[in-house]
Amino acid sequence: MKPFDFLTPSTLDEALAALHDAPSTTRPLAGGQSLLLEMKERAATPARLVSLGGLEELRGSRYADSGELIVGAATTYAALADARLDGWHGLIPRVAGDLADRPVRTMGTIGGALCQANPRFDMPALAVGLDAKVTIASAVGGRTATAAQLLDPAGGATLRPNEILTKINFPALPTYSGAAFEKVRDRMFDAAVASAVCAISLGEDDRVVAIRLVLGALAPAPVLAERTAQRLVGTTADEHDVGDAAAIATDEVATRECAGTRQWRYQRELVSVLVCRAVNAALHQARRS
Amino acid sequence: MSPPANTAVADAPGTAAGSRLVGQSVPRREDLALLSGTARFIDDIRLPGMLYAKILRSEIAHARLKEVNTAPALEAPGVHAALCGANLVGKVKPWGDLGQDLLVGDHFPFATDKIIYEGQELAAVVADTKYQALDALERITVECEPLPALVDPELALRPDAPLIQEGITYEFGDGNIFDRYRVRVGDIAAAEREADVIVRQRFTTNRQVGAALEPHGCIADYDSFTGILTVYSSTQSIYLVRDGLADALQIPRNRVRVIVPSVGAGFGSKVQLFAHEVIAAVFSMRLGRPVNLVLGRKEVFQVGTARPGDVRYAELFAKRDGEIVGYREYVVHNCGAVSMWGNQVIHIGTNIGILPYPIPNVHVDSDIVHTNTASAGPLRGFGIPEMIWAKEQLVDLAAEELGMDPLELRARNVVRPETFPYRTPMGQVIDSTSVYDCLHKAAEEIGWAQLRAAPIPNEGVGLAVTMKYTSCRHPSLDTDLSAVRLKLETDGTVTIFSSDVSHGQGHATFLAQIVSDVLGVGIEKVNLAQPDSATCPFGLGTFASRAAALLGTACRQAAEHLREKIVQIAAHVLEANPEDLDTSQDRVHIRGLSDTGLFLENLAAYAAYRTHQLPPGFEPTLEAVATYDTPTEREAPDGSGNFSVTYSTAAHAARVRVDIDTGHITVVDYAMAHDTGVVINPLIVRGQHQGGFLMGLGMALGEDLVYDEQGHLLTASLADYAAPRATDLPELTKIYEIPAPSLTIPGGQKGAGESGTGPVPAAIGNAVYNAAGIRFTALPITADRMLLALREKERRGVTTLRYPDDMPDFDGPRSYEEWPGPTDSGLEDLLL
User: Fold this and answer.
1) Which residues touch B730 (CB under 8 Å, ≥6 apart)?
2) Is residue B8 scored above 50 in pLDDT?
3) Which residues 146-205 of A are in CB contact (within 8 Å) with B?
4) Measuring CA to CA, which residue among B519, B608, B612, B601 is closest to residue B573?
5) d(CA B675, CA B689)
6) Are B158 and B367 in contact (CB under 8 A)?
7) Does this model's pTM top 0.80?
8) Which of B18, B446, B447, B675 could form a disulfide with B649 if both were Cys (CB 3.0 to 4.6 A apart)?
9) Which residues on chain B are in Cβ contact (under 8 Å) with A190?
């Protein structure tokens, strides 16, 4: 680790101003569970760190009047895991409580994971899968984006150096009837080898009205499987439909060129398994509620 | 088959009934410091004026080194000195030749003209802080010309392969084969002719590392007035470090003192002199100040030594009735770019690994090669888990061919002589064993018969059995000794001095149990001194499962000598016959009258402060030293010999579940039946078995140094190196001891430290085959390999499949006809 200045602003405006001064050499620090490791290895050598730890406004979760769930970007996984949320929103704390290990969950944040944009992390896939919106602030004005827009298909986040991700809005409960997250990891606490998110809306007739299916860890950013989802729309998503969809998913999302590596072939084999598991779990929830 | 547990120790002196501590689960006296965080490791030591050194390591695996320029580093803030290879040529003696038949001078503190593996030392700086040292390293410039890297050991055999070691002429001329190994026992051609069933398979093994929580590291502290170099090091052997360092630096051995604080484990990875120890010493000698040099996790993965990687072409010959009549193997043994002990691993791993079967005809050839990968060294099991991985799977293959139950085939063949000692065709002298009972116990506890008769879908059971050395007379070192010096202090307390470092074996506890029993002194009055070459007698160190049996025996003998002296004083003062005296409850007393007599405190004080109380002519030193060297044999030219004083046993049975959707393998149940002879401390031995199993599990299911084709290590962090975690462990409640006390070791004990590891990969491999029909011939058995194998099996519509041999992308030999042979098997008079 190289020496650096450590700034501890108490308001978002102070933090944004500090970033604005010298954006190329300053990095915001949320939980530090990726950045600090890079700094220890000297892979990252920022001259200044702006801690987001003191910004109350970036922490915690609440419901907006619209019914959207607003999660502060600096909310730790541990805090998120403790949140009691109804309906399919309950998936968010479950995912937050079953990733990495306890020390990482205590420090690491949901916003940090989205900005780090590691495709093997759970939060990018979950945010894209549930079609979350993000709010981004800077000293010269703010903007909003979808989680999918935040995550560059080529890898990394589309955040400018002077910007800070402030909150993540998950859609209101009526948006979906059920949602599920499934992943395969080598060892407990490892990042995912592959993951899948399914958010589903069922009609009165129990048929699929809308479905969102996202695969994580297969590409530099989460991949939306639209063709696969389309196969299920209008169906009752019975065993046959889901099996069909899973087969389509493998061809749709696992198209990367480096098909030669064993890891890639393994991920490819997992796609259909995870799609089946995620769709069935989301259906199960939708039909139970 | 199992002699009563205490025959060998029942009449030990000083053991008043009911007071014996040997055999009891005395809680480890080491644990309070470890659990409360107060134990001191290398990096906790702060010496006045201490500086910090860091090493610049190569980021490429193979290159011609043109220039290393350390001058810019000297300009960096806080820097005191810098070193590179050119500074030390002619000043530091290359090492690696302490023992016979070991490589000559392949170790040097830095690369000089060639870089031969990633992580190799290029330069070092020493500064006021470790951060300044790291900053300064960034200023050093290195100029080199990359060369093609060699990672695959079989490619190393080819005449057109890149040559790795250029400056050393080996016994066999130029090339990457730096040693060969042979076994010629019996008549393998006859065995092949007579065999009814021959099973053959190519197996490969992985490069597992110790991954000890405490990294390698040292502090060198040179006193420029006395000329004494004190080195604090995280090592398993203070004398291997002391003698190696003195030799490399060409200074007398009484000018080098090695002290060892708490060691955060070694598992075999800290049994040699390392470059960082020499570098720290040179810096300290130049500057006259203490120098701390502790490696980072990535460095430990790169240079901390790893299990050799084997390609094993193995064949087993059996008769129709199940008798195993022959074993033939050709092994390409990958020792990395430099290797202190790697070639010894194949000697001992093969000789002992053939057990527990007294196979009459054994024929082994090995080409021992260099590659541009991490140095091969000892690791828990020393070649035995690798051989068992091949041999115990062949046994299952043979059972399948013969239509026999694998348990029955093993039971038919395990060593089970009418009388002990029994010498096997390989030369081992088995002085006692309960292997037959262990085998059945493990099978019974896993539910072998029921689960074989009514299998659970996607679950399977597997067996593997090993016998294991209890210390070893290394082919390269004609010695197998440990020593203890005991001192009765002037207040009647006792200090144990031993150079064998405890790094998880509980020396402070089990040695005190022995001393307490023999001297009749309370265990709370017995203390183990810090390992220190200035005060402790010469011993080889703590490895090879040698502590309890060898060090324990030396300790028992020293305690008996000391007891004689104490009894002599007491007999004089009490005007009693020494034969009528006994020791217990901190005193020497008339036998049967333990409330009378003289306290050890008084007797010790006579020898120090009341010398007129001593018998006439009595030499007042109340110390005793004992060295125990085992009655073992050197390796014979045919590879046979009794290397080990006694043999412990581990019979393991695994029950696994395979997730056919993800390929994940879960060990749902595991039974371990062991013969560790007389167990001094069941709690410690149980811990060793659990830890041994855990290392075997890591070897079976995840751990490996994975290299790309350029020799770049892809698993140089604990995030990428798949060591098992607590959640991967089954409930290890089925651990059983069936003691067959050693008849050679005076206390009856056998080595415990490594027997838990040997059978694990093979037992799991056999269980995986039983569960899923996939015969893994390569380690580790990871989920990705398993799932791809299952899919390939499904695609082909077959019931069984070998991985990777039957996979479409496998580029090795698929059948026996395509197998390669040893590069020079005709040379029968080879020096072993």
Assistant:
1) B667, B668, B669, B670
2) no
3) 184, 186-190, 193
4) B612
5) 11
6) no
7) yes
8) B675
9) 719
The DSSP letter of residue B500 is B
Residue of A nearest to B781 (CA): A186
The beta-carbon neighbor of B784 closest among A2, A187, A266 is A266
Q: How many CB atoms lie within 10 A of CB B733?
A: 9
Q: Name the average pLDDT for chain B.
A: 94
Indicate the pairing of strand B734-737 with strand B665-675. parallel
The residue length of chain B stands at 832
Residues 6+ apart with CB under 8 A from B795: none
Contacts of A265 in chain B (CB under 8 A): 784, 788
SS3 B704: coil
Euclidean distance between CA atoms B51 and B62, whole angstroms: 32
Q: What is the pLDDT of residues B530-571, one digit of tens each?
A: 999 999 999 999 999 999 999 999 999 999 999 999 999 999
H or E element that contains A125: helix A122-129
CA distance B156 to B584: 63
B9-29, pLDDT tens digit by residue?
333 444 444 469 999 999 999
The verdict on a CB contact (< 8 Å) between A3 and B131 is yes
Q: State the residue for tokens 């062991």.
A: B674
ipTM of the complex: 0.95
Does any CB of chain B come closer than 8 Å to the CB of residue A2? yes
Q: Using the beta-carbon criterion (under 8 Å), do A262 and B727 form an inter-chain contact?
A: no
**Cα within 13 Å of Cα(B366), Cβ side:** 32
pLDDT tens for each residue of B395-413: 999 999 999 999 999 999 9
Q: Give A27's contacts (C-beta < 8 A, 6+ positions apart).
A: A35, A44, A46, A48, A49, A50
For residue B707, give both structure tokens: 């290299």
pLDDT digits (tens, 9 = 90+) for A93-113: 999 999 999 999 999 999 999
Contact B791 A270 (CB under 8 A): no
B788 to A269: CB separation less than 8 angstroms, yes or no = yes
**How big is chain A by its Cα radius of gyration, in Å?**
19
Between CA B632 and CA B745 the distance in angstroms is 12
In angstroms, the CA A90 to CA A47 distance is 40
Nearest neighbour of B791 by CB, restricted to A186, A263, A269: A269
CB-based contact B661 A42, cutoff 8 Å: no
Residue indicated by tokens 């770049």: B712
* Distant-in-sequence, close-in-space partners of B10: CB < 8 Å, separation ≥ 6: none
CA B452 to chain centre: 35
**pLDDT (0 to 100) of residue A289:** 73
Taking CB atoms and an 8 Å limit, are A270 and B662 in contact across chains? yes
Pick B784's closest partner by Cβ from A188, A262, A273.
Answer: A262
Does A266 contact B787 at a Cβ distance shorter than 8 Å? yes
Q: Compute the nearest-CA separation of A34 from chain B (Å).
A: 12
Which of these, B85, B99, B706, B638, lies nearest to B342 by C-alpha position? B99
What tokens does B81 get?
């000195």
Question: Rounded CA gap, A125 and A102, in Å?
Answer: 21
Q: Which residues of B touch A42 (CB under 8 A)?
A: 134, 138
Question: Residue A42 and residue B134: Cβ atoms within 8 Å?
Answer: yes
Phi, psi of B203 (to 5 degrees): -120, 150
Q: For residues B23 and B680, is the Cβ–Cβ distance under 8 A?
A: yes
Q: What is the DSSP letter of B363?
A: E
CB-based contact A266 B722, cutoff 8 Å: no
Residue among B134, B661, B783 minimizing CB distance to A186: B783
- Give the C-alpha distances (Å, rounded to integers) separating B508 from B87, B495, B749: 43, 10, 17
Asked if the C-beta of A58 comes within 8 angstroms of chain B's C-beta atoms, the answer is no
| Whole-number Cα distances in Å, B270 to A167, B121, B257, B298, B307 | 50, 18, 17, 16, 13
Rg value, chain B, Cα: 27
Interatomic CA distance for residues B663 and A270, integer angstroms: 10
